[in-house]
Write a structure and sequence with these properties.
The complex is a heterotrimer of chains A (323), B (350) and C (292). Chain A has 323 residues and is mainly alpha-helical. Chain A folds into two domains: 19-77, no CATH class; 84-322, MetI-like (MetI-like fold, Orthogonal Bundle), CATH 1.10.3720.10. Chain A has twelve helices and two strands. Chain A has helices spanning 19-32, 34-57, 60-63, 83-114, 117-131, 135-161, 178-202, 206-214, 219-248, 251-256, 275-283, 288-322, and strands at 67-68, 79-80. In chain A, strands 1-2 form a two-stranded antiparallel sheet. In chain A, α8 (206-214) runs antiparallel to α9 (219-248). Chain A is flat and about 85 Å long. Chain B has 350 residues and is mostly helical. Chain B has two domains: 20-109, no CATH class; 136-349, MetI-like (MetI-like fold, Orthogonal Bundle), CATH 1.10.3720. Chain B has 13 helices and one strand. The longest helix of chain B is centred in the N-terminal third of the chain and has 36 residues, at 74-109. Chain B is flat, with a radius of gyration of 29 Å. The two termini of chain B are 44 Å apart. By secondary structure, chain C is α/β, with parallel strands linked by helices. Chain C has a domain at 67-78 and 122-287: P-loop containing nucleotide triphosphate hydrolases (Rossmann fold, 3-Layer(aba) Sandwich), CATH 3.40.50. Chain C is built from eleven helices and eleven strands. Chain C has helices at 80-87, 117-123, 139-143, 145-149, 157-167, 171-174, 187-199, 217-230, 243-249, 271-276, 281-287, and strands at 10-12, 42-51, 54-64, 69-73, 97-105, 108-109, 124-127, 205-209, 235-239, 252-258, 263-270. In chain C, α5 (157-167) crosses α7 and α7 runs parallel beside α8. The longest helix of chain C has 14 residues, at 217-230. Classes of the chains: A mainly alpha (323), B mainly alpha (350), C alpha/beta (292). Chains in contact: A-B, A-C, B-C. At the A-B interface, α1, α2, α4, α5 and α6 of A face α2, α3, α4, α5 and α6 of B.
């Protein structure tokens, strides 16, 4: 009875790679870490070039509503703040999410549970295709086709809902509004959210769905009690991915939202802008000082989207691990 | 062995639970009824225009479906209402995308003429009649920048994927996380970065700068797709190679990568599809040029900027040219997409 | 997955085979030494099942006497589980599934066009091979989950929960932790929870598909005790691979076999007869362990 008296010491195994492999592994590592280098450089350069702005304005750069170059020769007369644009970025992105998520859920549920199986691959392919439509095409369509329609809608909407402040438009000017931009953005992010949702809903445990049916439940009962709760975190992750995309979208917003430096929550009215379209608009004729401000704005945008995407990835990965 | 009895006739296969014909008829009637009612409502009440019609429809359909099915019980009614809402919402989502395809085709084809793909805009102002000028410069420009960007991004992306899957180094999880973080960089920030470095340093907009901005945006897509494709290679293949004494380098390059060559091509194509339509970074890097050019140190045309700048002119002809450019861009994206899909289905069939 | 509800019948015609069948058909059409007592009876007549073109089950006519346990035995792949799923209309969830024949419950064909399958599934309950309590609900909520799904109002939830858990033989073990999540129980306890969940709907018939195959011997015995007790108030049908289990638990047995073609019912009889004095040689071979 001495077999378990002592367990032998475990040996540490090391691999001595051949020179060929050492070079191989080293170069692969270097190449892979390239993305780290790039990300760090982006942050570093934007900070370097925009630093002066942060030291000149401090926190008011982020909260300030005014963008006035003042005298181009005398930079001390400038008052620069991206507050209105940040609000615009967030506002349009939030509108986009609020519209996109219910439709994405419906589309995902339709593809996974209501569509005939033969059509499923075709629909998924269609989804991927629509996700690949360039934003400039969304922009031009949004400007030419969606704008008149939304303008038409905004009048009665404002009439009915103007007792709620965000729907009130005292200026009476509709047209390019945060609502239009948000609606267009929602179209752009729906494919992403739907793809993630579809993946998660499709992985809902079949035996629980079976149990639900065996208890005399309906299809909707099974969806509501099993599929939707199961897919909740995946859906949140997908929504955040869409949010990240919406926050950084430039051209579509540029074409559907005028740049007005006023913190504006009236979504049906013609005013707003987001940080990305600010950069695109002002870039052409910016003074050197203004350019630095645009870099600083880019840095803010970069950090915000980085944070949102980081959270999204964490949530989506965690939902996948539960499977 | 026992002897046979009289042959037993096999009855016909039935699906008594299948009520497709009846559901279609019933749903059809309900949809028509709600259409009629909402139309009636828009005519007779304050609810005006298309918005009113859609709202009316959105209210009518569930109510009618509910009313029709409540006789089977609450649960069945809720189930049917949910089904109708989900299907209707899906249909609603398809409408704008269909509109995009149709509008681009309808308006874009007006700009097409015999020389559209071979002429450029060097002598033709955008407001000129549509039979002059074309998009050749934009196509060439996009092509050049995409090729340069691919030459950089595809090897780097595959390297990252190889590092994660084959080398499995200490930083593998970190690299994957970084790649995902990088895929979230807004395109304008990528452009801004290249502007802050390359454009300012070299003193001007250039095709190089545009291509480098593309690299930042392409790299994560290529890396992620390549990683997924590499993971498909069965470990037995690698084991066989190692067991024969091959180095890791040789195994990777001679065994693993050739196995999924078409998958790697797919990841390259998907990366290209991702960037070909990006406008924002090019505003800050390659800018625009009206003539077909192969000079990499100067501004260069591209399809998205062609569209974008033509749109900004406000002229009717210019706007139609913008639609024409959109049609060309959409076709390019379609073709790339179809290519990627055929390659990947062929890969999975292996 | 489709939610089927019957209204029109779709007929897919199959050519009648012209070759003669080689196996001798000795199906017992009725366990006729027991009367059918009033309603609640379950019977199949000439039941066939297909998965697309694949003929999985052929011509099964079987009567399940009330308040008894019938064990469905036979080697794997001969259609026992398919047959079971046809009894509560779960077979139709499989895409491209089709059937022929009748399943009579209380004298009426459950596949008739005016029958609501949801009602059927409430009166004919099912417990699956792998225990599947809803993880997002606690033990008490799991028991009444079926009622919640059906939106049936319960006057006294706690009494019902206690009653169902007692009948499932689980009450004593969980009465102090009804708020614990459903997944925190052992395998055998989870399976008894699933039985309690089915019982809450007060079914007339309970179908069990190899309920103990994922459990350890101790839990298996407890589940078997539960099954025998339940048969005093409902009809129980249990699919099992384990002949000893069939011998322990069932009053009647039905032996299924496939010769490479569709599964067929070879013999159905009292369990004691089936094991001591089977009529068919194939049954004898199977129960004596010569194959399977």
């Amino acid at each position: 009875m001495t077999d378990t008296a002592t367990t032998p010491e475990r040996r540490r195994l090391t691999t001595n790679y051949t020179p060929v492999d050492r070079v191989f592994r080293g170069s692969m590592t270097a190449g892979a870490l390239f993305s780290l280098v790039v990300l760090a450089l982006i942050a570093a350069f934007l900070l370097y070039r925009g630093f002066e702005i942060f030291s000149d304005f401090g926190f008011s750069f982020i909260t300030g509503e005014v963008w006035n170059i003042g005298d181009p020769m005398d930079t001390s007369t400038a008052v620069l703040g991206i507050g209105a644009m940040l609000v615009g970025s967030v506002l349009t992105a939030v509108i986009a999410i609020l519209i996109a998520v219910p439709f994405a859920m419906s589309a995902a549920l339709f593809i996974e549970y209501y569509a005939p199986k033969s059509v499923r691959t075709a629909l998924t392919a269609l989804l991927d295709l629509v996700a690949a439509i360039p934003s400039v095409i969304y922009g031009i369509w949004g400007y030419a086709v969606l704008l008149p329609i939304v303008e038409d809608w905004s009048v009665p909407l404002e009439r009915w809902l103007d007792f709620i402040p965000i729907f009130d438009v005292p200026s009476g000017i509709f047209g390019r509004s945060p609502f239009l931009a948000g609606l267009l953005l929602s179209l752009m992010i729906t494919p992403i959210v739907t793809s993630v949702a579809r993946e998660v809903y499709g992985q809902a445990p079949r035996d629980l769905v079976d149990a639900s049916y065996a208890l005399g439940g309906t299809k909707w009962g099974a969806i509501r009690n099993v599929v939707l709760p199961f897919g909740r975190s995946g859906l949140v992750g997908g929504a955040m991915l869409g949010l990240g995309r919406a926050l950084g979208e430039t051209v579509a917003v540029y074409l559907t939202l005028n740049l007005v430096f006023d913190i504006n929550f009236r979504i049906l009215g013609s005013a707003g802008g987001n940080v990305a379209s600010l950069i695109a608009t002002k870039f052409g004729e910016a003074t050197p000082y203004e350019l630095k401000a645009l870099m600083a704005a880019g840095l803010v945008l970069f950090l915000v989207t980085l944070l949102v995407n980081f959270l999204a990835t964490v949530i989506v990965n965690r939902s996948r691990r539960i499977v | 062995m026992t002897t046979a009895l009289a042959p037993t006739a096999v009855p016909a296969q039935r699906r008594p639970w299948n009520r497709r014909r009846q559901t279609v008829v019933r749903s059809g009637i309900l949809v028509l009824a709600s259409l009629a009612i909402s139309y009636g409502l828009t005519e007779t009440t304050e609810l005006g225009g298309i918005l009113g019609f859609y709202l009316g429809l959105a209210l009518c359909l569930p109510v009618l479906v509910f009313a029709e099915s409540i006789r089977h019980g609450w649960n069945v009614a809720v189930d049917r209402v949910a089904a109708s809402v989900i299907v209707a919402a899906f249909g609603a989502v398809l409408i704008p995308w269909a509109s995009i395809f149709l509008t681009v085709y309808r308006k874009g084809s007006k700009a097409f003429h015999a020389g559209y793909l071979t002429e450029d805009m060097r002598i033709t102002p955008s407001s000129d009649p549509l039979q002059f000028g074309g998009v050749a410069h934009a196509i060439v420009g996009t092509l050049i920048m995409v090729l340069i960007a691919s030459a950089i991004a595809v090897p780097l992306g595959i390297t990252a994927a190889v590092y994660i899957v084959e080398v499995k180094g200490r930083f593998a999880g970190f690299v994957r996380f970084l790649t995902q973080a990088m895929s979230g960089v807004p395109s304008i920030v990528a452009g801004l970065f290249i502007y802050a470095t390359v454009v300012i340093f070299f003193g001007g907009f250039s095709a190089w700068a545009g291509a480098l901005a593309y690299v930042i945006l392409m790299l994560p897509t290529v890396a992620r797709t390549a990683e997924e494709v590499l993971k498909l290679v069965p470990d037995e293949l690698r084991s066989a190679s190692y067991a024969l004494g091959a180095s890791q380098a040789r195994t990777t390059f001679r065994v693993v990568l050739p196995t999924i060559a078409s998958g790697l091509v797919t990841s390259a194509i998907l990366g290209v599809a991702r960037v070909a339509g990006e406008t924002a970074p090019l505003i800050l890097t390659a800018s625009y040029f009206v003539a077909t050019s192969t000079n990499l140190n100067e501004p260069i045309a591209s399809l998205p900027i062609y569209i974008f700048s033509s749109l900004g002119l406000g002229d009717d002809n210019a706007t139609t040219r913008a639609w024409g450019g959109s049609l060309v861009l959409l076709i390019v994206v379609f073709v790339l997409f179809a290519l990627a899909r055929t390659l990947s289905t062929r890969l999975s069939r292996k | 997955m489709d939610t089927p509800d019957s209204n029109s019948t779709e007929v897919i015609s199959t050519p009648v085979p012209t070759e003669t069948t080689v196996i001798e058909d000795r199906t017992r059409r009725n366990a006729d030494n027991l009367e059918v007592k009033g309603g609640g009876g379950l019977e199949t007549r000439g039941l066939h099942a297909w998965f697309n073109k694949h003929h999985a089950l052929a011509d099964v006519s079987l009567h399940f006497p009330e308040n008894t346990v019938t064990g469905l035995i036979g080697p794997s792949g001969c259609g026992k589980s398919t047959f079971l799923r046809m009894l509560n209309r779960m077979h139709e969830f499989i895409p491209k599934a089709s059937m022929a024949g009748e399943v009579l419950f209380e004298g009426r064909d459950i596949y008739a066009t005016d029958v609501n399958p949801i009602e059927i599934r409430r009166r004919i309950g099912m417990v699956f091979q792998k225990p599947n309590p809803f993880p997002a609900m606690n033990i008490g909520e799991n028991v009444i989950a079926g009622l919640k799904l059906a939106k049936i109002k319960v006057k006294d939830k706690d009494t019902l929960i206690e009653e169902c858990l007692t009948r499932a033989g689980l009450w004593k073990e969980v009465k102090d932790r009804l708020k614990a999540p459903g997944g925190s129980l052992s395998g055998g306890q989870q399976q008894r929870l699933c039985i309690a969940r089915s019982l809450a709907l007060q079914p007339d018939v309970l179908l069990l598909d190899e309920p103990c195959s994922a459990l350890d011997p101790g839990s298996t015995l407890r589940v078997e005790e539960t099954i025998v007790q339940l048969s005093e108030s409902m009809t129980v049908v249990i699919v099992t691979h384990n002949m000893q289990q069939a011998a322990r638990v069932s009053d009647y047995c039905a032996f299924f076999l496939s010769d490479g073609g569709p599964g067929r019912l070879v013999e159905a009889d009292l369990t004691t007869n089936m094991f001591s004095n089977p009529r068919d040689t194939r049954t004898a071979d199977y129960v004596q362990g010569r194959f399977g």
